[in-house]
Design goal:
106 residues; alpha+beta; N-terminal domain of TfIIb; 2 domains; 5-stranded antiparallel β-sheet; 2 helices; rod-shaped; binds zinc ion
Amino acid sequence: MVKPNRSLATQRALVLRGCLDRLVARVARPLIQCQIVQQQVISFVTETHVPIPKELLDILVCPVCKAPVKLLADGSGLKCGACRRVYPVRDGIPVMLPEEATIAPE
Ligand SMILES: [Zn+2]
């Protein structure tokens, strides 16, 4: 009676595999596609959008004193004209957080 048990186990395994395949098709593949899109967006932002678009610079202000910020010559940060805080630019994305900012000497 070992053989029928095995075939039952095999049938169950096949049903389970069918369920898993459907699950993969419905959940995992969109997730993978989502990751690919995310990677494309990141590479687009980091490779194509450095320096930061002017439209974005125009609306960015210092979160502490609400004064406009200017992009540093080397593109590494955004400097507030009023309080001299320099907000870092990481992977082409400005980090407008006071705790991440450094104070420029002059
Ligand atoms: Zn400021």
